[in-house]
Specification:
The complex is a heterodimer of chains A (157) and B (284).
Chain A lengths: L1 E6 L2 E6 L6 H8 L18 E4 L2 E4 L12 E3 L12 H8 L9 H14 L5 H8 L10 H9 L1 H7 L2
Parallel strand pairs in A: 1-5
Antiparallel strand pairs in A: 1-2, 3-4, 3-5
Chain B lengths: L6 E3 L4 H10 L4 E4 L5 H6 L7 E4 L9 E4 L2 E5 L4 H6 L3 H4 L1 H7 L5 H4 L4 H7 L5 H8 L3 E6 L2 E6 L4 E3 L2 E2 L6 E8 L6 E7 L9 E10 L2 E10 L6 E2 L1 H7 L6 H14 L10 H20 L1
Parallel strand pairs in B: 1-3, 2-3
Antiparallel strand pairs in B: 4-5, 5-10, 6-7, 6-10, 8-9, 11-12, 12-13, 13-14
Helix pairs in contact in B: 9-10, 10-11
The chains are: A alpha+beta (157), B alpha+beta (284).
Chain lengths: 157, 284
């Protein structure tokens, strides 16, 4: 069936089977392979995208459920050139090694910092508890997110 | 795994949703937030022939607060409960429990009605409705009816819902301003399913407990009430002796299974500790 939604500011229309997850739709139909698929049952967080600004697991969302929504993937949180302050903070703090979980970490951290630019370390840990990383031990990721808070405060109205 | 194939419908009214469910004779499943149904389909535990998406049923999205209590539309998401500042005073036990529901991203999608219909014995919302004596309003082919939470949960992932019925509302009774409450959950990782949790409240009657309601999740095939603990508490003051008796009564009330996450003996001990901590929090 046809489904129309917006991805990273661009309107798209795709013909999908109802059983197709949003994650697979983004990767295979729209070639947005920045969204990673790890567990495919809602445990690992690698596939996190934003739907109307809220972080969700795209493997637990059907593509057909995205009808009319504004979807933002990790590609939509990147610049043409150079790094965003959040990405730069991940680099500075060595908050990734293999990089598989990073798209989910970035999208989740972006959603959190956009809503709560004053969040503390406990809140960051609580929110990131839904994202599994098998390399870093998380400490550097929490530090990177905390360090990126200042750049989100500036953008607040 | 990829999901098995199914047909999909997105009705715009409750009656249309019910008619669709009825037309597939038990092979159709309603889709609320999808945070349990979609993984179940990925694991092939569920393979409905038709998925009926409830997302366009705006009338199921409301949170209503009145003198009678709090009414949650079945499609209210966890996030909406946490964002509604009114609920922190009119139903604080609900808010305390919902803070423990799953992870950040799942709370943005998952719904109260979905959780109750799914009926995971370790899930918070079934424990809340049972402990608070909530009423669950459902609509099916035969019309609307209201089910007491005490009669709703029949086993793990099994409820009194008929295949053509959907939950429309969850009605939580009024909460007196001075009511004392505690919620304590233990999970290996914050956001994971509870190994055990205790939910309780009581009214203070001149230093003594009145109207104690004590429930637990993660320790049986359904959420459970612990009447033996309620009996210990009613008429007593919350002191060390009462707390010790309540803890012992909680552990003695349950006989949990072993599973890969914890042994039955561990859960039995744990539920006592959760009751103890919840009582201390309530009395503090």
């Amino acid at each position: 069936m046809p489904v129309k939604f917006e991805v990273n500011g661009k309107s798209v229309e795709v013909e999908v089977e109802p059983r197709l997850t949003l994650a697979d739709c983004l990767r295979h139909y729209l070639r947005l392979t920045g969204t990673h698929v790890g567990c495919e049952h809602g445990v690992c967080g690698a596939c996190t995208v934003l739907i109307d600004g809220a972080a969700v697991r795209s493997c637990l969302t059907l593509a057909v459920q995205a009808e009319g929504a504004k979807v933002t993937t990790v590609e939509g949180l990147s610049l043409e050139e150079g790094l965003t302050p959040l990405q730069a903070s991940f680099r500075k703090h060595h908050a990734l090694q293999c990089g598989f979980c990073t798209p989910g970490m970035i999208t989740t951290a972006h959603a959190l910092l956009s809503e709560e630019p004053d969040c503390d370390a406990d809140r960051v840990r609580e929110v990131l508890s839904g994202n599994i990383c098998r390399c870093t031990g998380y400490i550097s990721i929490v530090e990177a997110v905390l360090d990126a808070r200042s750049s989100y405060k500036k953008t607040m109205p | 795994m990829k999901l098995p194939p199914f047909e999909y419908a997105c009705p715009t009214s409750v009656s249309e949703a019910v008619a669709l469910l009825a037309s597939h004779e038990g092979e159709a499943q309603p889709l609320a937030g999808g945070q349990s149904l979609v993984p179940m389909m990925a694991f092939r535990v569920a393979s409905p022939s038709l998925v009926v998406d409830l997302r366009k049923l705006a009338e199921l999205r409301q949170i209503k607060i009145s003198d009678e209590g709090v009414t949650l539309g079945a499609m209210v998401r966890w996030r909406e409960i946490l964002d509604d500042a009114r609920l922190r005073t009119v139903q604080p036990l609900l808010v305390a429990a919902v803070e423990h529901v799953a992870h950040y991203q799942i709370r943005n999608r998952g719904t109260v009605g979905g959780s109750i219909a799914h009926a995971d014995p370790a899930a918070e919302m079934p424990g809340i409705v049972l402990t608070c004596d909530a009423k669950i309003a459902v609509t099916g082919k035969a019309g609307a009816r209201v089910i007491d939470a005490a009669n709703f949960f029949e086993g793990p992932l099994m409820t009194a819902l008929k295949p053509d019925e959907i939950i429309t509302e969850i009605r939580l009774p009024a909460w007196p301003a001075k009511r004392r409450f505690g919620f304590q959950e233990f999970a290996r990782r914050r956001g994971d399913f509870a190994l055990a949790a205790a939910l309780l409240f009581y009214d203070d009657d001149g230093g003594k407990v009145r109207n104690a309601h004590v429930g637990a999740i993660g320790v049986a095939d359904t959420p459970v009430r612990l009447p033996a603990v309620e009996q210990v508490l009613n008429g007593s003051a919350i002191d060390e002796a009462t707390i010790a008796k309540a803890e012992a009564a909680a552990s003695a009330s349950v006989d949990p299974h072993d599973d890969i996450h914890a042994s039955g003996a561990y859960r039995k001990a744990l539920v006592g500790v959760m009751v103890e901590r919840a009582l201390r929090a309530a009395a503090a």
